[in-house]
Each structure stands twice: as C-alpha cells, then as structure tokens.
From TrEMBL:
CDD domains: PAP2_BcrC_like. It holds the Pfam family PAP2. The keyword Lipid biosynthesis does not apply. The lineage of its organism: Bacteria, Bacillati, Bacillota, Bacilli, Bacillales. This is Undecaprenyl-diphosphatase BcrC. Keywords: Membrane, Transmembrane, Transmembrane helix. InterPro entries: PAP2/HPO, PAP2/HPO_sf, UPP_Pase.
Amino acid sequence: MLVLGNHKFKKHVFFSGVTGIAALIVNFAITLFHYEERPFVAHKVDTLIPHSADASFPSDHTTGALALSLAIRSRNKRLGNILLVFGLLTGFSRIWVGHHYPFDVLGSLVVSIVVVFIMNKLWKFFDSPIDRIVTFYETIVGKIFRRKTKDQGSDLSNS
C-alpha cells in the first residue's frame, strides 16, 4: 500500500500503522497492571488453535485489527467500514477459538477507539515531520523503481 497511491494516501497508511502500534503499546501497558487468564487456562478446555498462556485482556489481534480499521475509517469511511467488519470478525474469531472472553474483545474495541481519537487529535502536530518522512520514502522508492526499470531495459537491449 505504501508503493501505490498518492502522497496523501501514503500519509494515511503511515497514520494507520502508527496508530495500530500505539494501540498495541497501550495493550502492553494494560497487561502490566491487569492480568487475566485466558479461557482455555482458567477452564481447562481444548482450543482449536494452540496459544501461549499469557494475558487474555485485551486481545492484541483484535486491538490491532480494530485500531487499523478505525484509523483508516477516520480518513476513508468506505474502506474503513469494510475493514471494520473484518476487525470485528477478528474479535469474534478470537472468542470462537477459545483464546479470549467477550470482555477481552470489548476492551480491545475501547482501547482502539480511544487511541484512534487521541491520535487524530495529536496528528496535526506531527503532520509536517510525517510529510517529510513520506516525501523521503517516495524519493527512495522512486529511485529503486527507476533503477530496476533501467536495469530491465538494458537486459532487453542486449538480447
């Protein structure tokens, strides 16, 4: 996604990635203060998919999926709504396979909403540096693709 699209789109992708990382950092901070056993540990049930017996609350998979989809939704409602469905399905699947309680997924939704809200408020302060980062990225990628095109062109002319 970072190769395709215009400058504004690449900034949105960057925003979404940073927001997803921020949400996962919040999850990590929560687990430092609150530990809840996973359902398969607390209730001695077999899971569909093996998983480590670390903290259950909140769900990292769900937080990541929801934070990304909500961040994208804040910039592109149509695409964000589609991805939000997948984020919610991620949460449901985490419950289905026995890795999380419904409250873990609800907690992930709350973390994601709060982090996206805060990141949207803070983003204006970082717009200029992010603009420079994306411009630098575009310069590097542009040089790589031009070099590949020239290399491929020279191979064809030598045949």
